[in-house]
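About this split. The held-out portion is used to measure sequence recovery: a designer receives only the structure tokens and must propose an amino acid at every position. Recovery is the fraction of positions where the proposal matches the reference. Here is one held-out target exactly as it appears in the evaluation file.
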């Protein structure tokens, strides 16, 4: 699953949740936006925040609410729970388990 923050100099950044059926990896991909613009867009969307240039924190409840209606597989909820469990075991949950730390990457082509 990918949370994208995309935009340009003349437009407001937009947050999109894509590839929701791929729960093997969770990425925060930034397009042509500054870290500050991305942080504000994520906060405005209620999906999380940019922690620093390399790390973001995504709100798990908000992300699930945005992604699950787009899911195409019958076992999506079970696979979501598995992904969150793996993140917990890896020590990537923050905010008392409400948030998940993810790497910030470039949204190539966005």
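Reference sequence for scoring:
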């Amino acid at each position: 699953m990918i949370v994208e923050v995309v935009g340009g100099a003349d437009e407001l950044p937009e947050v999109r949740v894509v590839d929701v059926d791929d729960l093997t990896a969770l990425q925060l991909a930034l397009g042509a936006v500054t870290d500050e613009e991305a942080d504000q867009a994520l906060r405005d969307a209620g999906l999380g925040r940019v922690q620093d240039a390399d790390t973001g924190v995504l709100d798990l409840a908000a992300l699930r609410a945005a992604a699950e209606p787009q899911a195409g597989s019958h076992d999506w909820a079970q696979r979501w729970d598995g992904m969150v469990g793996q993140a917990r075991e890896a020590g990537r949950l923050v905010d008392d388990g409400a948030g998940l730390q993810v790497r910030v990457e470039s949204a190539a082509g966005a």
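Annotator remark: Residues 2-106 form one domain.
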